[in-house]
TrEMBL record:
GO terms for cellular component: ATP-binding cassette (ABC) transporter complex. SUPFAM superfamilies: P-loop containing nucleoside triphosphate hydrolases. It is found in: Cell membrane. InterPro entries: AAA+_ATPase, ABC_transporter-like_ATP-bd, ABC_transporter-like_CS, ABC_transpr_CbiO/EcfA_su, ECF_ABC_transporter_ATP-bd, P-loop_NTPase. This is ABC-type transport system ATP-binding protein (Probable substrate cobalt/nickel/biotin). It is a peripheral membrane protein. It comes from the Archaea.
Amino acid sequence: MTADHSGERTPLVDLQCEAHTYPDGTVGIHEIDFSVYPNEVVALVGGNGAGKSTLLEHLNATLVPDEGELIVDGTAITEDNKAHARKAVGFVFQDADTQLVAPTVLDDVLFGLQNYGITGEEAERRAREALATVDASHLEDRIPHYLSGGEKRLIGLAGVLVLNPSVVVLDEPLAGLDPERSRLVAKRIRQIHQEGISVVLSTHDLEFAAEIADRVCVMADGNIIESDTPQAVFYDDELLNKANLRPPTAVRIAHDIGVDSTAQPVTEADLVSIFSKT
Ligand SMILES: Nc1ncnc2c1ncn2[C@@H]1O[C@H](COP(=O)(O)OP(=O)(O)OP(=O)(O)O)[C@@H](O)[C@H]1O
């Protein structure tokens, strides 16, 4: 973890966004002050249209604020150096088809490297390594378009990891995946975190958010209305009501059976650990 002279952590990404207005006049997000710190997993939660994707797309300058600033690894991002943001902040889209463009899976992962001038044997070695880290080596000759949704998501992730980003952003990483694929993607996200890469993701699955996140940001009407630990967020009924969210199952069970309120279990594993002590 890095620290500045005041002893506070220095963010890897710092976004100030007064507002982002889409061409049709819709304000996607407003008054956003959002930072990503080293070695953390942040989950954005909130109802449909709350602004999660719009915020995420600002983190690698896919979208830019009407007024505001994006700073990545200490560098202010402008029209001229967006490539810095794209490389440092890898983005895995929910709709992987928008990301996978080459004729084969291996070519696709190589494509990202070529954009940064890495070619030949070095590029192939790194691309194969990235595919191996997402358990997708067996897919390297396949046509990306015909892969399953879960496989596409993993290849999108490999295409991002190959560039050694400081932050990986995933928009709804589990959407449309079967339970097995969800577990695989969640496992890979945990591994990325263990390797010291920060992760920011959006999700409608609050069980997943409770399991994976160090910090949960609740969004409503284009704004972050709370940013805190999963315990603080998921035990704040008023906040959840405001954002139209239902607490994760473990929290509802804890309420129903009257678990000691100081324990604040948010995951199934937390509940099991409480029961195994009683
Ligand atoms: N391309 C666009 N043009 C106009 N308005 C848009 C566009 N994309 C998003 N919006 C609007 O911006 C607001 C925020 O949308 P966004 O997609 O960021 O929300 P979200 O929290 O990701 O929603 P969901 O959970 O449904 O994916 C919504 O009002 C949405 O209708």
